[in-house]
Amino acid sequence: MAGFLRTLLPYLMMCFALNTPLLHAAPGAHGPDGEHLTTDSQQQRSLLPRFEAFSELFEVVGELQPHALVLHLHDYQSNRPLANAQIELETANLSSSAHYIADKNHYLIDDVALLDRLQQPGTHEMILTIISDDNADLLTASLDFAATDYADTAHHHHGHFPWWSLPFGLLMFVAGVLFGRRGAAK
């Protein structure tokens, strides 16, 4: 068995040497948190349209989903989520109030007219009125919506594994076994 392994070792080393370039991070490789390492900042955006707004009191992150606008409200100083605040969003002569979803710890706007307006291509300027138990503030935000934002989510896939290396590796393994048996028969 040891002779077989000694005969097979050069072939295994050759397979490893030929596949070493595949081990390095290539464009599109992922970091420890799944982020793309070598993409430009334009590609690093969320798959859904988002906006952020903050002041000395509040921080709001909004994500436009197909059937709702989800808002995450935090205290700016402590970064703690704030529950049961009043949030009103105004844009293009439309306004709507958000309601708090306790089990998900976020706010939701599901006004059809407002969502239809926000899903039109272009930049949407918004004013958010926030009233909590202790404070109140006005925040401004911009939502950039491109018509392809939702279409891109369906086509986002990864094909990082070099499938061509499987038959090549199998071929090298079989060749190693055959040459190893031939060398052991002598």
UniProtKB/TrEMBL annotation:
Domain of life: Bacteria
Transmembrane segments annotated in the record for this chain: 161-180
Listed name of the protein: Uncharacterized protein
Keyword presence, Transmembrane helix: yes
Signal peptide start and end residues: 1-25
Keywords: Membrane, Signal, Transmembrane, Transmembrane helix
Source species of the chain: Arsukibacterium ikkense
